[in-house]
Amino acid sequence: MSTSPLDYSQDPPRSQYDLIIRKDKPFNAEPRIQDLVKHYITPEQFMFVRSHGPVPMHLNDSHIITVQGGENTKEFTVGQLKTQFKKYHVMMAMQCAGNRRDGLHRVKHTKGVIWGAAAVGNTTFAGCRLRDVLHAVGVTSFKNDLHVAFESVEQCEETPCYGSSIPLCKALDEFGDVLLAYEMNGKPLTRDHGYPLRVVVPGYIGARSVKYLKSIIVQDHESTSYFQQRDYKLLPANVSCEAEAEEYWCKVPAIGEFNVQSFVCSPSHEEEDTIKASGIMTAQGYALSGGGRGIQRVDVSNDNGETWQVANLYQPTLTTSAHIWGWCLWTLKLEYKGYPIVSRAVDSAGNVQQEYPVWNYRGVLNNSWRTVNL
Questions:
Q1: In whole angstroms, what is the distance from residue 329 CA to residue 313 CA?
Q2: Pair 210, 129 in one domain
Q3: Distances 361 to 17, 129, 299, 339 between C-alpha atoms, Å
Q4: Is residue 328, in this structure, part of any structural domain at all?
Q5: pLDDT tens-digit profile of 79-111?
Q6: Is 124 found in the same domain as 47?
Q7: What SS3 class is residue 223?
Q8: Phi-psi region of 365 (alpha: psi -120 to 50; beta: other; left: phi over 0)
Q9: How many distinct structural domains can be found in the chain?
Q10: Which domain holds residue 76?
């Protein structure tokens, strides 16, 4: 654990955001849920910010990243990564592992920032492929027991710096689209989103997309970082405190790909009187799945789950990409019946969203129905 107070006095200004602050220091914020589905590509104004400590303010294109693969080690500046490697683009849903933690917290105490359902966004990133950089240090093939560990310069409350890892097979996958990104939505990364360089791992929880990258190491074990070994794991439902969690940290795997899920973002509670008067409402929401799986169907119910209607989907990459990393937006006109609206999603692999909540001590990735009580 960090033993000295962290200095947040140099954090960047944040007037450009229209976000709800969930924690001030470190800065963690998300948009209002109705704003989230106004755009298929989430603008910076509405993109959630997840921080574990003060924002590094001393980094630029001369910042050095060390890449170690076996016996070979090379150093690259951010500027060299921009000029020596081909630039690629990927559109992906970036989701905090704690998205929707507030629903869990209402039922059982959870640890971490109490996020609503908007700690997610759909953005385009640009940068060089991690695969190409690993090839440059001689890493061209993988064994299933190898991992790629990332370390950040970000100081954290829990540990001196942030770290995480992914399987090497994901990093080297020609269609895995893992990038060392320096742009978001066609512009240089902002400091809150990882300037000058971050990892982006499509289809995985955001905790694996390490910001302010300092080093990349191919090794025969997962990252030993606090955030890989003692955080971002799903513990058994009976675990209710830190002492009980001790038995399970080494037994439970770290979360990688996220599950299929959907959420009803509108109508809002403020629209209740108008909806009652007209008798008709338009429900809107998002759906997404990990692992490159697109959304096949979203079902919506306005009669307490007795009957379901199929929503209209907007997922333009469904027929143009080998893998679907972006989210799906959905809409459906419904008759007002006085019941909560609920939704459930099915992905392209046939995985069906869980219809009942999964409670656990960490409070991550709740995939229960989302209801709007009108």
A1: 6
A2: yes
A3: 31, 36, 29, 30
A4: yes
A5: 999 999 999 999 999 999 999 988 877 777 777
A6: yes
A7: coil
A8: left
A9: 2
A10: 20-245
Q: Does a structural domain hold residue 127?
A: yes
Spatial CA neighbour of 300 closest among 205, 246, 362, 370 = 370
What are the respective helix, strand and coil percentages of the chain, to the nearest 5? Answer: 15, 30, 55
Distance of alpha carbon 295 from alpha carbon 352, whole angstroms: 10
111/131 Cα distance (integer angstroms):
35
Of residues 332 and 246, the one with the higher pLDDT is 332
Residues 6+ apart with CB under 8 A from 372: 264, 266, 267, 268, 269, 283, 340, 341
Q: Is there a single domain that holds both residue 145 and residue 186?
A: yes
Residue 334 covered by a domain:
yes
Q: Per-residue confidence at 233, pLDDT binned at 50, 70, 90? A: confident
Please enumerate, as own/partner, the contacts of 194-198 that have beta carbons within 8 Å and a separation of 24 or more. 195/59, 196/59, 196/60, 196/61, 196/63, 196/78, 197/63, 197/65, 197/78, 197/81, 197/127
CB atoms within 10 A of CB 8: 14
Return the residue matching tokens 């080998």. Answer: 322
Q: Is 136 found in the same domain as 231?
A: yes
Q: Is residue 4 part of a domain?
A: no
Retrieve residue 106's tokens: 């209402």
Q: Do 265 and 194 lie in a common domain?
A: no
* One domain, residues 279 and 319: yes
Q: Give the pLDDT confidence of 270-322 residue by residue, as tens digits.
A: 787 788 888 898 999 999 999 999 999 999 999 988 999 999 999 987 655 67
Indicate if 228 and 278 belong to the same structural domain.
no
The CATH code of the domain that includes 323 is 2.60.40.650
